[in-house]
Specification:
Elements: H1 9-20, H2 27-37, H3 44-56, E1 60-64, E2 77-81, H4 83-100, H5 105-111
Antiparallel strand pairs: 1-2
């Protein structure tokens, strides 16, 4: 697996959040979804850097909505996970499942 398809921890979390939002996720809603499910503080700067990196890797795609007067004319950038992103996330999940196969943290700790 090449570096472009490797997913770091935050990249995985962001992809999960974007998938959960079903193509309607944008910066603030993705950040909210992460903060609801992850015991880790994700800053807006870290989120946007990760979104840009994932888009550069072809894992997500974005689309700009119409400008909103309530946002000073700024447009929301909605995200969706590409088929490449879904495949990379599934590969990563499968790899972790193989790594954990046969490990029982409670039993192994008691016998060690």
């Amino acid at each position: 697996m090449g570096r472009a398809s490797y997913l770091g921890e935050l990249e995985q979390m962001v992809l999960w959040a974007v998938i959960r939002l079903g193509g309607e996720g944008y910066g603030a809603s993705i950040l909210e979804a992460l903060n609801e499910r992850v015991d880790r503080r994700v800053t807006p700067g870290a989120l946007y850097a990760t979104l840009d990196r994932l888009e550069g890797k072809g894992m997500i795609q974005s689309r700009l909505a119409d400008p909103e007067p309530g946002r000073g004319g700024r447009r929301k950038r909605y995200m969706d996970v590409t088929s490449e992103g879904r495949a990379a996330l599934e590969r990563t999940r499968s790899e972790w499942m193989r790594v954990w196969e046969g490990i029982d943290l409670v039993t192994d700790a008691e016998s060690g």
